[in-house]
Amino acid sequence: MRIFTKLSAPLCLLFVFFCLKTAFSSSIHASSFSTTHLCSHEEALALLQFKTSFSIDYTVWENYCGQNYSKMESWKEGIDCCSWDGVSCDNVTGHVIALNLSCSFLYGTFRSNSTLFFLKNLQSLNLSWNDFRHSKIPSEISQFTRLKHLDVSFSQFSGQVPEEIAHLPKLVSLNLSSSDFYDDSLELILETTTFKNLVHNLSEVRELVLGGVNMASANPRFFMNLSSSLTTLDLSNSVLRGNFPNSIFRFPNLKNFFLSGSENLTIDLPSSNWSSPLQQLYLHDMDCGRRLPESIGDLKSLQSLSLVYNNFRGQIPSSLANLTQLTSLSLSNNQFSGVLPPWIFTLPLLEDLYPNHNKFQGQINQFSQKSLIHLDLSNNKLQGSIPNSIANLVNLSYLDLSSNHFSDFVELDMFLALQNLETIILSSNNLSLRMNVDANFTLPKLTDVFLSSCNLSEFPNFLRHSNGLQSLVLSKNSIHGNIPEWICEKDDLKILDLSHNNLIGKIPNRLPKFLSVLNLQANYFDGNIPFGFPEGCGLQNLNLHGNQMEGLLPRSLVNCSMLEVLDVGNNNISDTFPHWLESLPDLQVLVLRSNKFHGFVQSTKESPSFPKLRVLDLSSNDFRGPLPVRYIENFKAMMDIYRDEGSPEYMNIGSYQYSLVVTLKGFDYELQRILTIFSSIHLSNNMFEGEIPDVIGKLSSLKGLNLSHNNLTRHIPPSLGTLTDLEWLDLSSNELVGKIPDELGNQFNTFGNGSYEGNNGLCGIPLSKSCDGIGTPPSFFQEKDEFWRFGWRVVVLGYGCGVFVGLEMGYHVFRAGKPKWFVSLFDGRPSQSGRKMRKARRLVQRRS
Ligand SMILES: *[C@@H]1O[C@H](CO)[C@@H](O)[C@H](O)[C@H]1NC(C)=O
Ligand SMILES: *[C@@H]1O[C@H](CO)[C@@H](O)[C@H](O)[C@H]1NC(C)=O
Ligand SMILES: *[C@@H]1O[C@H](CO)[C@@H](O)[C@H](O)[C@H]1NC(C)=O
Ligand SMILES: *[C@@H]1O[C@H](CO)[C@@H](O)[C@H](O)[C@H]1NC(C)=O
Ligand SMILES: *[C@@H]1O[C@H](CO)[C@@H](O)[C@H](O)[C@H]1NC(C)=O
Ligand SMILES: *[C@@H]1O[C@H](CO)[C@@H](O)[C@H](O)[C@H]1NC(C)=O
Ligand SMILES: *[C@@H]1O[C@H](CO)[C@@H](O)[C@H](O)[C@H]1NC(C)=O
Ligand SMILES: *[C@@H]1O[C@H](CO)[C@@H](O)[C@H](O)[C@H]1NC(C)=O
Ligand SMILES: *[C@@H]1O[C@H](CO)[C@@H](O)[C@H](O)[C@H]1NC(C)=O
Ligand SMILES: *[C@@H]1O[C@H](CO)[C@@H](O)[C@H](O)[C@H]1NC(C)=O
Ligand SMILES: *[C@@H]1O[C@H](CO)[C@@H](O)[C@H](O)[C@H]1NC(C)=O
Ligand SMILES: *[C@@H]1O[C@H](CO)[C@@H](O)[C@H](O)[C@H]1NC(C)=O
């Protein structure tokens, strides 16, 4: 009964305690809480009850926490609670004063009657990285009147932050970063009154972290009334609107300021007097004006400056040269132009330099600092040769010079001194890489090597001793000969892309054990596809397109249960339809075109087949019989693709993008990236016969359908008219008859005569041959045809300047008036509403 007399809590809590007591009294012996225990009986009970109100789920943030046990495993009766993991007590009073339950795999609703609120003496509470299943933050939080540190970040709280959060006047740090990457409606909302009170009441707050919190209703002006003790303000990916007060740059103690991804927020960078002692400044993905003022050089203490995804133009201010404390400078994805100033390569402490994705041009200076660790100059217009002083950058771990206009011959020995190099990306320049035949050097730490389009004529043998190699991309060179033994022995290797070379011979039997991507497209390999794919084969992308492979498809491919892309197009494979692949759960792209596949295409079973297939290309084979109705009925992924226009996503593994050859109007185009919403069916140039099944109308997310050059008969089913996403349709050269359904004529007015030609029995709009003998005005067709040709002209023009741009441009033209985000694909900038991507990106940045 002593317990009850001590309590001054409300009635409901009395009830809680009653339950607690009944729950535990039977098992707690008097001796359990002997006087040697610092921790009080009540607080121990409260903690134990708190523990039982959640389940422990080891899948909660499992990859983020770097631990595989819950602290609560050590919470047991009979042991002094002050010695439990995550619990800290005042060493005189025995009160629990700090609770660190971060990464405890807690899963369940956080209730307002939680017994945690008994711990009235708490000064620090860390609940980050749990999953409270979108609970609201209970208003009872205000009972922790002594709280100084509150961290509920990444714990899946959502809804409105209670106004009681402003009743914690002692708070020194508050972290409400929210974490739902999938559903913005589940974010935390900080309303204007609560925010105003918080600013007003939290007079001692030094660190305020509101990443991802929705403050759309709050006036950003209130930020200027924050306590002048503020040292950290983190507003990454918060939803804010209006104009952010630039007086923030004059806060006397502000060291870290992060502001990003608020699409409706502007900030006018001050033209003078940035007096804050800022050490880290991140302004990402928002409207900061077009000029970065010279006055930014006032921030003499700056160590890390990141200004990515803004609209900055013009030259980088020369005053940055004065920021000699800088260790990290990120300017990527703006429109900066001019030459890269010489001082950028002399800043004495600089470790990370990211001017990538801008319009910098001209030659680059010699490097004089040795501190650089990450250097990314990619996607600019830099030219000239690579300075030989690069050999001085002995700490360099990441080097990306790709997609510039660097030219000249490069002796690979040049990189010999860079013994810490892990990633080297030189692709897409005008470089000619050469190897000194006598050179015997190795870069032992290399993991990722991207040397596409580098005029290599032989394999870079120095890689032979790089044992940690994970990605080797040597596509679009003129390497000849066989695949060397040593490559086949690199069992860490995950990505091997040797496409577009002059390789010959047989594909080796033994391939690296843990390969995820094998791309040998466009070479001269011949013989059978030899490999017996072992049980547990981890291949995700197998591309043998455009070789001279013969024989059968190895049945052991079914062992590759993670297979997403199988492309054996343009070979001489002679086999029947591989229906045995239909159970592969992740297969998305199956390309068998231009081979000698033959026979009927038929499902062998009733159960779901090819559940994720989005691209099926069987064209130019000897398939016969009816169209594969049962498969079509089951192409779930073409019926119902999750559409989020905000964030185009591509198939990839890490930074390696999958590519795909598609054939449109007889031309092959290489899509250098595969949009995850791209779906098409190509069955042309076979001997399919019978009618087009009505069920094809169910494939509602289909973008392209080509059934041309078959022997299809009877009518076009009206259900085709429901395919509103269709962008190209080719039914030409069949034996189709009857009126083109109105649904098609009206819906797809971009499909001109050509789509249907060679079907002498067809009539009606949009064909000039009318069904009732009354002609339609010829201008109508010319117009449509013009549009059609215009579309194709863009594709073909684009082909010359870069294949994928061409195709995406074409895609864009077809979609005129459709989602805007396609525009954003061209310059590498994410869409305006791609918050999800940004969140994910930010998380990755945080964790790294
Ligand atoms: C808290 O309230 C919920 C219902 O809202 C109830 O199921 C639960 O038993 C209560 N917990 C305690 C400890 O009283
Ligand atoms: C947790 O990880 C450690 C090593 O980090 C390992 O020894 C231990 O077996 C793991 N425990 C469980 C339950 O997986
Ligand atoms: C109690 O903690 C304070 C600081 O928190 C420390 O200075 C003091 O030495 C501790 N006393 C004992 C007896 O451990
Ligand atoms: C809190 O717990 C986490 C996870 O176990 C640990 O990484 C962190 O260092 C702890 N923080 C404090 C202040 O003890
Ligand atoms: C809470 O714990 C996490 C570790 O998971 C740690 O990173 C964070 O700094 C802690 N929060 C506070 C306020 O100490
Ligand atoms: C400030 O906090 C106190 C409790 O500490 C509370 O009573 C008061 O209402 C708060 N003021 C505002 C403006 O929220
Ligand atoms: C939350 O913010 C506080 C204050 O800046 C910080 O110390 C803590 O590490 C953050 N928590 C996490 C999980 O990052
Ligand atoms: C913010 O501060 C300004 C000047 O310091 C003051 O005029 C204004 O009333 C304050 N606003 C709030 C909401 O406290
Ligand atoms: C930004 O403003 C536009 C136009 O008012 C609105 O459609 C959009 O939803 C806003 N974005 C956010 C994140 O509030
Ligand atoms: C660097 O700082 C000095 C002293 O503050 C100033 O005189 C000079 O103009 C600055 N240099 C540049 C390039 O801004
Ligand atoms: C090349 O160097 C490696 C290791 O540094 C050594 O094992 C090998 O024998 C050398 N080969 C030649 C031909 O010198
Ligand atoms: C097309 O199919 C019809 C029967 O539907 C058949 O009579 C005809 O011979 C076929 N044509 C060709 C070229 O196979």
UniProtKB/TrEMBL annotation:
Record-linked PROSITE patterns: LRR
Gene Ontology cellular component terms for the protein in this record: plasma membrane
Signal peptide, first to last residue: 1-25
Keyword annotations from UniProtKB, A to Z: Cell membrane, Glycoprotein, Leucine-rich repeat, Membrane, Receptor, Repeat, Signal, Transmembrane, Transmembrane helix
UniProt cross-references to SUPFAM superfamilies, sorted A to Z: L domain-like, RNI-like
Membrane topology: Single-pass type I membrane protein
Pfam families cross-referenced by the UniProt entry: LRR_1, LRR_8, LRRNT_2
Location within or outside the cell: Cell membrane
Transmembrane annotation, as ranges: none
Domain of life (superkingdom): Eukaryota
Protein's UniProt keywords contain Transmembrane: yes
Residue stretches making up the Leucine-rich repeat-containing N-terminal plant-type domain: 41-90
Signal found in the keyword field: yes
Family to which this protein belongs: Belongs to the RLP family.
Designated name of the protein: Leucine-rich repeat-containing N-terminal plant-type domain-containing protein
Organism of this sequence: Rubroshorea leprosula
Lineage: Eukaryota, Viridiplantae, Streptophyta, Embryophyta, Tracheophyta
